[in-house]
Amino acid sequence: MNAGPQDTGGARLREPVHFIGLGGAGMSAVARVLLGQGVRVSGSDAADSRGLRALEALGAEVHVGHAAAAVPDDGTVVISSAIRGTNPELAEAHRRGLPVLHRSQALAAAMHGLQGVAVAGTHGKTTTTAMITVLLREAGLAPSFAIGGDVAALGVNAAWTGGDIFVAEADESDGSFLNYAPRIAVVTNVEADHLDHYGTAEAVHASFRQFAQQLPEDGLLVACADDAGAAALAADVHEPRRVRTYGYAATADLRISDTRAVGSTTNSLLSFAVDGLDAQQELQLGVPGRHNILNAAAAFAVALELGVDPAVAASALSLFSGAARRFEARGEGDGVRVFDDYAHHPTEVQAALTAARTVAGEHRVHALFQPHLFSRTREFAAGFASALSLADSVTVLPVYAAREDPVADVGGWTITDLLPGAAYIEDPQEAVRAAAANAQAGDIILTIGAGDVTQYGLQLVTLLRERADRDRSGGAA
Questions:
Q1: What are phi and psi of 168, to 5 degrees?
Q2: What is the CATH code of the structural domain delimited by 113-317?
Q3: Active site residues per annotation
Q4: In angstroms, what is the C-alpha Rg of the chain?
């Protein structure tokens, strides 16, 4: 359920602001920002969580469970696209005639009047937003921020600092990124996705064109020259708005070159150079993958636009240690390292497994994949099969339905039927055991998907450590 377009006009939101689904990553980020601004905040979620309690400690009024009585007598109600019209709190808000805003509209109101940096793209939004925020913070610019995932170097997914720069992840999945009015827009890539909302690939591209066209006359589009969709978008932006492209492509304004690994396989840095400045600048990055080099180049471009010295930006960027669920280390057992990644589109899965191959060296890579959404699984089954073929063994779980109702003729088997040797296992615990059994010392297991597959990373580590203990004691498997 999406709130209709309601322009806040830059006005302060009517208080209190009540969030339905407060514990979600995007919703909690907006709530943190508003609490930092001194806004009265309340909210509810279906289940209790550490995130809810953290917001309560910051001053939010928190309710566990959804009930009409939780809705304040006055104020503003904020929802995400996941909230259905049958939700009792949303129904009560409509009955009372309270203004109902999408979370992006609430965040846009919180950002009003600031120098906004909005990061959009089919893939890489969270990591790129996190990189920009860490870089600017380390460079002394003290940005406020709202990110769709926790970042170790920041400690939280959102914060209000009172400065004049605001960095926000702009989610295109439901078109809500069009509610932002940034001065700097970053587009990492544009591909067909979220077709349950858009219907066609052309509609996806049209939405990104509108996003770029909303830039003010002094605005800047930072776009990836290596991605066909982003490059086409950049070519469509005209003066007085400016464009700065980045990538390995010869046409890029900031060209990446001389990429190499520095250090050991288990503790390596990526070193690369960026040309297109007065002098070449070398950068180092502590997270793996070509896609992360591109994300870092985007962050570097934003920093330059905001007046950060190139050498200072390079030093700050080297401190980035990753975002939650983006090739996140979950632990090690019996010599097997376990990582977790949020990838849920074929391009993202390919990037994650390519990075895993780099980290694994001569050892094997094993994928435990959970498809996300029946519509996406149906649309991109062949793409998922192709991307997963980069792994040495593949175990596929049932589809994580999220906001969708089940579809009888679509499931994890839709992918494994196209990938010889891959196993579809319906029982999650059996799938975890199978993935662990495939791995030997030196290998990597990567749990992949946007659903609850992340919980199996620690289970894999536990199983592997128990296996090592049995081997040491000489006990039976």
A1: -135, 140
A2: 3.40.1190.10
A3: 125-126, 169
A4: 22
